[in-house]
Design a protein that fits this description.
Blueprint (H helix, E strand, L loop, with lengths): L1 H12 L1 H9 L6 H13 L18 H13 L4 H15 L5 H12 L10 H25 L11 H14 L15 H12 L3 H9 L14 H4 L17 H12 L1
Length: 256
């Protein structure tokens, strides 16, 4: 809602952005364009109403920043946003409020309740890894493709904004602000490598924040039960019953 409102207001107020997002699309309004873009970016779908993605938005830094941040919030920064929201709610609660107990439990044991609610250490590991990969891609892109048509003769701030947008979207949503065929070959290889490494930060944080079942969760007592196998009790065999001939022999010996 926040991102959609900001995008709709920006498109409605900026004449060039309004022309790109509404007139060139054909009948779209700022609100409908913003709603479509927000859903597509947050879910990392990569669809745009423009036929050339966000190439026409290279001169609209606000739109690039909002969409890039939305892509991150819908992907690897989603667990971090959830945890930070709980931290903020806990800090805003009164000291002796019952809500503070619930928020504290979510921060300590939230991984048992929701797979994307990581521990503090795993959360910071995810954020640090993501920032390191994005920074690396931004630096290499600016160094290698500075003379490419998509970056040439543009201000330094605009180049940085485009490189950051490409670094975020090439690994997640796939929305592009430059024509990829005009980029240097080394930049394209870097994009392929970063696409391959895209799930790595989330998977690392997911595995490092694994948990053991708590006291309220039943634990199987044997390895076969943990694998879902059923075990049956072996009943002892019935006692041996003497045959009729043996009984007759015993009776005859007693008569003797």
């Amino acid at each position: 809602v926040v991102y959609g409102t900001c995008l709709a207001c920006y498109v409605a107020s900026a004449r060039s952005a309004r022309r790109i997002s509404t007139e060139d699309v054909g009948g779209a309004t700022p609100a409908s364009w913003a709603a479509f873009t927000v859903i597509s970016a947050f879910n990392n779908v990569g669809f745009t109403l423009q036929k050339d993605a966000f190439v026409q938005f290279v001169g609209e830094p606000t739109a690039l920043i909002l969409v890039g941040a939305l892509v991150l919030h819908g992907n690897v920064l989603y667990p971090a946003c959830i945890r930070w929201s709980i931290v903020w709610l806990s800090a805003a609660s009164r000291r002796h409020s019952n809500r503070k107990v619930y928020f504290r439990y979510l921060l300590l044991h939230g991984r048992k309740l929701y797979s994307s609610l990581f521990s503090s250490q795993a959360n910071w590991l995810l954020v640090a890894t993501q920032l390191a990969l994005i920074s690396t891609q931004i630096g290499v892109t600016l160094l290698v493709s500075r003379d490419d048509p998509g970056f040439k003769n543009k201000p330094a701030a605009q180049k940085l904004n485009i490189a950051a947008f490409e670094a975020v979207n090439s690994r997640h949503a796939g929305i592009s602000a430059v024509d990829l065929k005009t980029l240097h070959g080394a930049t394209l290889v870097l994009i392929l490598a970063m696409m391959w490494l895209a799930p790595a930060p989330f998977v690392v944080a997911l595995r490092t924040s694994d948990y053991k079942p708590g006291p309220g969760i039943p634990r199987s007592s044997s390895s076969s039960e943990r694998r879902g196998e059923t075990t049956t009790k072996r009943t002892p065999p019935p006692p041996n019953v003497s045959s009729a001939d043996d009984d007759d022999d015993d009776a005859a010996s007693m008569d003797d």
